[in-house]
Each structure stands twice: as C-alpha cells, then as structure tokens.
Specification:
By secondary structure, the protein is α/β, with parallel strands linked by helices. It folds into 2 domains: 5-42 and 70-157, HUPs (Rossmann fold, 3-Layer(aba) Sandwich), CATH 3.40.50; 168-286, HUPs (Rossmann fold). Helix content is 39%, strand content 21%. The protein has helices spanning 16-30, 59-86, 113-119, 140-150, 177-192, 211-220, 237-247, 262-268, 271-278; strands at residues 5-10, 33-38, 48-49, 55-56, 102-106, 125-129, 154-157, 168-172, 195-202, 225-231, 250-256, 283-286. A 10-stranded mixed beta sheet has the order 5-2-1-6-7-12-11-8-9-10, sandwiched between helices. The protein has a two-stranded antiparallel ribbon with strand order 3-4. Helix 3 packs parallel to helix 4 (140-150).
C-alpha cells in the first residue's frame, strides 16, 4: 500500500494553515499529488416567514448567500494556490523539482459534506481539520462524513502546525478490526517512522490480539515496533492514550475510529470522541 494522492477539503476557517502544512508534510514524505477542494455549503437557515407562516427563501437572500459563498470559495482557492507556490509547487503544473509534489485545485459545484466524502474515494489520503470549540474550524460532520463515506483513511490536522510526521508513531491498539484496518492504511507512515510504539490501555480492549502480538506482526513486516501497556487509572481510555502519546513525544497517532456505535459514543463518550476533541498531534484514522 502506498500514498501518492492527497485531498485537502477546505473552508474559510482558522484550521486552514495547519491542514495545509500537515498535508504538505505527508506530500513531501511520499512525493504526492495534492488536490484542494472547497466545501461548498448548501443554502440553509436563510429563510423568512411568509403570510401563511411557511419558511421560504427570498430571491434576494439566496442571491446574497450565493455571492458570499463565491467570495469564500475564491479566498480559499487563492490561499491554497499561494501556499503551493510558497512551497515551490505551481498549481496545475508539474511536480516541484525540489519536493516532487504536484498540486491542483478542483472546482466542484455540488454542495455539502457528502460531495467531499464521495470525491475523497479517489484519494489515498484525505487531510481534515480537527474541530475546535470556540474557533472557526471544520465541523465534526465534515470529518465524520469523509471518514465514513470515503472508505479511505483521514489524517486529522491538529490546531497547531506539526513539525514532522516521521518521529515517534504511536498506535492506539484496542484489539478491534477498525484499528487493524487503520494499521494497514498506515504502513507507509510506520515504515518511515523513527520509532513505533503499539500502545494498549488496560480495561478498554475488545477481544482480539494483544499489543505484543501486533508489534511482533509489524516486526515481521520490517517495522521495528515495540509494545507498551498502561493502566488508565482515573483517566478515560482516550485521555490515557493522549497522555502516553505526549510522554513519548509522539509526532503521529494511529487510531481506529468508533469501535462502538457513533450513537453510543455520542451518549457515553469514548476514546474516539475524546481524541477528536482534544488531540494536539496529527491523528490517522480509518473505519
């Protein structure tokens, strides 16, 4: 499995800088083609009440919304192309002689997260931003739609720009099929890592192989992995994973998404939900 194509679905938000830099770290590492895409928003909430009490969108409001959206799309495209030029890649041109990365902007008139999720099926990896409370950032719905609709892995950019993806890589292992599938997608990152730690947290495992067995499997594949088991203590599983990743100085976390149903995660919480809300390092996820 290789990574040669990366999609970056963008909005006009605070997370754009970290998303672009995170995508570029991966693109330089693997010599990728990178495509930018503006997430066009559908007209919603732009309504008034008519005499009969029904909510209707007026022509003026629709026109105003569409014009504002066109302006946002232009700003996002300009930011993507300026970023690419600054890195030595000409948008729409050939690969940079320095990095081997090529970039293009994709114009799509279909609105909504679903359109981005379907387009992401064409790519080896999609870079998304982590939703951050109180900041202008991508919606959780965007991340989840691409995660579940693309059938491909996502790389979640943290709020702050990361320095590297090739230092210590931590695999949050819980025995699940979702995490096993994510490890398969993550093999290019694992092969390039300086250190790989298969981390398990006592009490949050599902029936499946142990962390030691996963590490042994990876070593057979040429990845010098080591295992580590920790106790959650007074922390949740997600808190324990992020704390251990921080102690290890991890540059990337590998995590299977939503071992339990999304509804259960929403009601009771869970490791995936906590990591999506609090991770300060890039996270590679698949389902």
């Amino acid at each position: 499995m290789s990574i040669k194509t990366i999609l970056v679905p963008l909005e006009d938000c605070d997370a754009t800088a970290s998303m672009l830099e995170t995508a570029w770290l991966a693109a330089e590492q693997f010599g990728c083609y990178v495509e930018g895409l503006y997430i066009k928003r559908a007209l919603s909430g732009v309504v008034v009440a008519d005499i009969g009490g029904y909510a209707v969108a007026t022509a003026d409001l629709v026109e105003s919304f569409e014009e504002e959206d066109r302006q946002r799309a232009q700003r996002v495209r300009a930011r993507f192309e300026d970023f690419a030029r600054g890195k030595g890649a000409t948008p729409g041109g050939g690969a940079s002689s320095k990095t081997g990365v090529s970039t293009t902007w994709y114009d799509d008139n279909d609105p909504g997260d679903a359109a981005a999720g379907m387009h992401a099926r064409l790519f080896d990896l999609t870079v998304v931003g982590r939703p951050v409370s109180g900041l202008s950032a991508p919606a959780t719905s965007t991340l989840e739609t691409i995660l579940f609709e693309s059938g491909r892995p996502i790389l979640i950019a943290p709020p702050a720009v990361p320095a590297t993806l090739q230092g210590t890589v931590v695999i949050s292992w819980n025995g699940s099929t979702e995490t096993a599938r994510t490890i398969a997608h993550a093999m290019p990152f694992l092969a390039a890592a300086k250190r790989v730690v298969v981390l398990s947290v006592e009490g949050v495992m599902v029936p499946g192989p142990t962390a030691a067995e996963v590490a042994r499997y990876l070593r057979h594949g040429g990845v010098a992995a080591e295992e580590r088991e920790v106790a959650a203590g007074n922390h949740s599983g997600g808190e324990a994973v992020l704390a251990e990743a921080a102690d290890l100085g991890a540059s990337l976390l590998i995590k299977g998404a939503y071992t339990h149903s999304r509804l259960r995660q929403m009601i009771f919480g869970g490791a995936t939900s906590h990591i999506l809300a609090a991770a300060e390092l890039p996270v590679l996820m698949a389902h």
